[in-house]
Amino acid sequence: MNAPTTVAAAPATATTPRLRRVLHDRRLPVAATALLFLMMYGYGSYRYSFDAQVGPNLLVNNCYLVIAAVGVTFVILAGGIDLSVGSVIGFSGMLLAKLIVAYHVPAGVAALIVLAVGTAGGALMGGMVQVYKVPPFIATLTGLFLFRGLSLVLSKEAIPVDDAGVTQLAQYHVPLGGGTFLSVGALVALVTVAVAAYVLHLTRFGRQVYAIGGSEQSALLMGLPVGRTKVGVYAVSGFCSALAGLVFVLYIQSGDPLHAIGLELDAIAAVVIGGTLLTGGAGYVVGSLLGVLVLGLIKTIISAEGTLSSWWIKIFTGVLLLAFILLQRVIGVRGTNRA
Amino acid sequence: MAEVAPGTRPVLRMTGIGKRFGTVQALSEVDFRLLPGEIHALLGENGAGKSTLIKALTGVYDLDTGSVELDGTPVRVSNPHQAQRMGISTVYQEVNLCPNLTVAENIFLGRELTGPGGVIRWRKTRRVAAELLARFGLTLDVGARLGSYPLAVQQLVAIARAVEYRADGSATDRDGGSATKVLILDEPTSSLDRDEVRVLFSVMRRLRDEGVAIVFVSHFLDQIYEICDRMTILRNGRLVGEYRVADLDRVGLVRLMIGKELGGLEALAETDRPPVGDPVLRAEALGRRGGIAPFDLELHASEVVGLAGLLGSGRTELARLLFGADAGDSGRLAIAGEPVVLRGPHTAIARGVAFCSENRRAEGIIPDLTVRENIILAMQAARGWLRPVPRDRVDDLVARFIAALDIRPADPELRAGALSGGNQQKILLARWLITQPRLLILDEPTRGIDVGAKAEIQKLVAALAADGLAVLYISAELEEVLRLSRTIGVLRDRSLVARLDNGAEVTEEHIMRTIASGAHR
Ligand SMILES: Nc1ncnc2c1ncn2[C@@H]1O[C@H](COP(=O)(O)OP(=O)(O)OP(=O)(O)O)[C@@H](O)[C@H]1O
Ligand SMILES: [Mg+2]
Questions:
Q1: How much of chain B exceeds pLDDT 70, in percent?
Q2: Distances (CA, A) of A197 to A71, A319, B116
Q3: By residue range, what is the domain housing residue B423?
Q4: At which of B175, B210, B225 does a domain end?
Q5: Measured distance CA(B244)–CA(B4) in Å, rounded
Q6: Partners of B496 in the β-ladder
Q7: Same domain, yes or no, for B284 and B404?
Q8: Is the pTM above the cut of 0.90?
Q9: Which of A11, A116, A204, B206 has its CA 20 to 30 A from that of B165?
Q10: Among B156, B175, B194, which residue terminates a domain?
């Protein structure tokens, strides 16, 4: 046997100039979102002279959305979709409020119960998708109705949470210096993003999420535990929604059966603007954080403008979504393999 | 039947395997046994049931009937994950990896090298992946996305992945899995060139010597005789028999595979009339930076021009330029005497150029459409979607091509994805032939096609050329290029280095030497 000849193969694409390489970089969409955020922030500061707290407030006011978007990122990366997020958030808040107020369960225990219920609910929807091959859209739509209905079963009215511990936690400010601060919820959101990034990039489960999103058939034939991972992804989303529900209660100190209606759409929009491919397999959770911040910034700028009606928020969000989906198309087309 | 030395217990024994898809009985009553430390060929025509047997073994499909024993204990495998944990490692026929992940990730997916707390150690992963690929003679950027590499490289990565399953015992054991006992390779060599095949074989021999039992599927008989110890032959989903390779010669093997004597391997009609008239296609200094250096090429009616060259030599890139799939950045192109700038495949198609891609899964077959719809696709596209081809004409044409190419099962209403790999390739060929092109570019048209059908396709190409079609024939198999072409273009390092007029003095040797030396003319 002769020594094996060496086949040095360059990626079919790396042979072309640097620009192409940049266009192929999977991090490009996230970088674009970051740049967009900075530009908008710069514009806002210049035009409306933002004070120092505007930045932290983006996180403080949208912390629940960040958390929900993290869960949705997992699902979308694996090639699925989760429409139940808003309902699970609303239900979680109601369940927490009901447990504390009506059954006098200690707040900590109640929170754990809520997280467990949210996770189980997510896993259940994952099970529908995996075992009964219900399309994710339908399975989570079921969840959307079910959990909203359950919240109304718990109570038709909002339940104020007047637990001393909760109030204390809600009012606790983490100083950032210069008179700025973060809320506990914002901190929780940041930790969630960090943990999610860790899970996605440094654990087997995380890599399997990407693999399944890339090609479920291949992942199966490669001998990956596809079923377990898919159920896991929905469970993660359920957990995140429940956590977002808890943080939401902290934010407004009550549970309301009509809270967070349609929030799943904001979360999905944030994920897409954050550069995650809607078809799965590519994206970063940090992008989703940036996506939420961009959405928050649109709101801030439009309300600072004062003369624009709030519908402009929706319009800008729509335009941005379109722009990012088009960007994905461009990158997707260039990134396709050629033999 | 070959006798198994007494006392050797098969590592794997499958008995009475049956599998049915709708109306197609893909397997019935198939027995299969595999001894430790052997390389066992699984043979049969396209659609004989080889891949189905493999998928039934590894839990992709449920068994209708039959049982499986691994190391003497009955097992039930319900998914590939389980198969892998039992020590059965498989490379399926179509490359099945995740193109969106990096090369290194693909190799280690599912058994990542982790440190304390289950944290993946990326640096180590990349290092080990690079080392592993080096054993296959590959130096790649393991941090690049797999999808950015050509198919052959992906194929090698898939093989490396399957082989690695045992190479790093530490990664497997923690998962409770066992080291690989059985390695299954379903047509691993179909997109490889000789050098890669050689490397693969040396790896296979090493594994065999270490006691791994290997199942090897290939339509290249030379390869079977080179590397295998025993073989099992299937025909129409049934077991024909199990033989020692040494006991059965090629003629006998082919007869058992196709159930009759093989005709059609006799010399093809000579097509050495000198080309007349204007060339159908003329490229002058056509090139594309990073793809292929500027080249001159002429193709005449009734002429088959072969392209030979190693993997990555630019064979496919050249073809893609002529078809407008990539845009050239230098030179000129004329089709039928008229200068053209190809702005995309549609401009080429409109001028009568057809291109049959080597990458049938990504660029070819649409698995969810029927065989008929797949065949009619290019013709319909050429007419525009507003002028549907009349249905009875479609049925007639489709039936003719199914018969001509012997596509099996001969049912135009089946889902194309349900056909065996080789039959899918024939569908692609039919799709382009039906458009009645002036110039047909065939990129590896016989990859994965069985001996009988391969001879049929070669005959067909020769006949089409005799009828006036110009053909550009790209193949990794020199023998095939030699047999068919009047002129042979030799490629090396992404440039066309020589053009040989086929004649008695041009042999495989000669071409290999030209490829190696890159001599001009
Ligand atoms: N998923 C499926 N659904 C329906 N029919 C199928 C499916 N997979 C295979 N078949 C049928 O089963 C038969 C055996 O196919 P198989 O893929 O095992 O052939 P093969 O021996 O591997 O052929 P090749 O050499 O072309 O790869 C064929 O008739 C094929 O059409
Ligand atoms: Mg097959």
A1: 91
A2: 11, 28, 18
A3: 265-517
A4: B175
A5: 10
A6: B491
A7: yes
A8: no
A9: A11
A10: B175
User: Using CA atoms, how far apart are residues A1 and B516, in angstroms rounded to an integer?
Assistant: 18
Phi, psi of B305 (to 5 degrees): -105, 125
Chain A CB contacts of B101 under 8 Å are 207, 210-211, 214
Q: Which chain A residues are closer than 8 Å to B321 by Cβ?
A: none
Instruction: Give the DSSP H or E segment for B487.
Output: strand B487-492
Judge: A214–B100 Cβ closer than 8 Å, yes or no: yes
B264: left (phi over 0), alpha (psi -120 to 50) or beta: left
Could you name the CATH architecture of A53-320?
Answer: Orthogonal Bundle (1.10)
Same domain, B170 and B273: no
When pLDDT is cut at 50, 70 and 90, the band that residue A14 belongs to is very low
**ipTM confidence score:** 0.82
Mean pLDDT of all residues in chain B? 83
Taking the CA of B424 as reference, the closest ligand is 1
Provide the residue ranges of all domains of chain A, joining segments of one domain with +: 53-320
Nearest CA residue ID for atom 3, ligand 1: B418
Residue that is written with structure tokens 């409020």 in the block: A97
List the residue whose alpha carbon is closest to atom 17 of ligand 1: B420
Residues A149-203 pLDDT 10s: 999 998 888 888 888 888 888 888 888 887 888 899 999 999 999 999 999 999 9
Read off the pLDDT band of A208 (50, 70, 90): very high
Residue with tokens 């979680």: A92
Range scoring the smallest mean pLDDT among A143-152, B270-279, B283-292, B299-308 = B270-279
Cβ within 8 Å, pair B101-A214: yes
**Token digits for A130?**
């995996």
| Inter-residue contact B450 to B257 (CB < 8 Å) | yes
A223 close contact with B: CB closer than 8 A: yes
Q: What is the pLDDT of residue B472?
A: 92
- C-alpha distances in angstroms, B131 versus A10, A204, B120, B134? 17, 21, 18, 5
What are the angstrom distances between the C-alpha of A120 and each of A94, A195, A263, B255, B331? 17, 20, 20, 60, 64
Which of A5, A211, A217 is facing B101, going by the closest CB pair? A211
Residue A322: is it exposed, middle or buried by C-beta count within 10 angstroms (0-12/13-18/19+)? exposed
In the numeric block, which tokens belong to residue B414? 């089946």
Domain total of chain B: 2
Helix pair A184-202, A204-214: axis angle to 10 deg: 70
Is B453 touching ligand 1 by the criterion CB < 6 Å? no
CATH number, domain of B358, equals: 3.40.50.300
- Residue B46 binned pLDDT confidence (cut-offs 50, 70, 90): confident
On whether residue B225 sits in a domain, the answer given is: no
**Which are the contacts of B183, defined by CB distance < 8 A and separation ≥ 6?**
B89, B90, B162, B163, B207, B212, B213, B214, B215
> Is B341 a domain residue?
yes
Chain A interface includes B150 (CB < 8 A):
yes
What pLDDT shows up at residue A336? 43
Q: Give exposure, A164-187, as e/b (b: 16+ Cβ within 10 Å).
A: eebeeebeeeeeeeeebbbbbbbb
- pLDDT of res. B7: 60
What distances in angstroms separate CA B516 from CA A39, B195, B313, one per listed residue? 56, 12, 11
B387: helix, coil or strand? coil
pLDDT band at B518 (very low <50, low <70, confident <90, very high): low
| Ligand 1 within 6 A of CB of B309 | no
B109 at the A interface (CB within 8 A)?
Answer: yes
Tokens of B323: 């078809």
CA nearest to A317, candidates A261, A268, A284: A268
Task: Output the 3-class SS for B126-166.
Answer: HHHHHHHHHCCCEECCCCCEHHHCCHHHHHHHHHHHHHHHH
Q: Which residues contact B146 (CB under 8 A, 6 or more apart)?
A: B97, B98, B99, B100, B101, B102, B103, B106, B154, B157
With tokens 């990859």, the residue in question is B447
What average pLDDT score do residues A34-58 get? 87
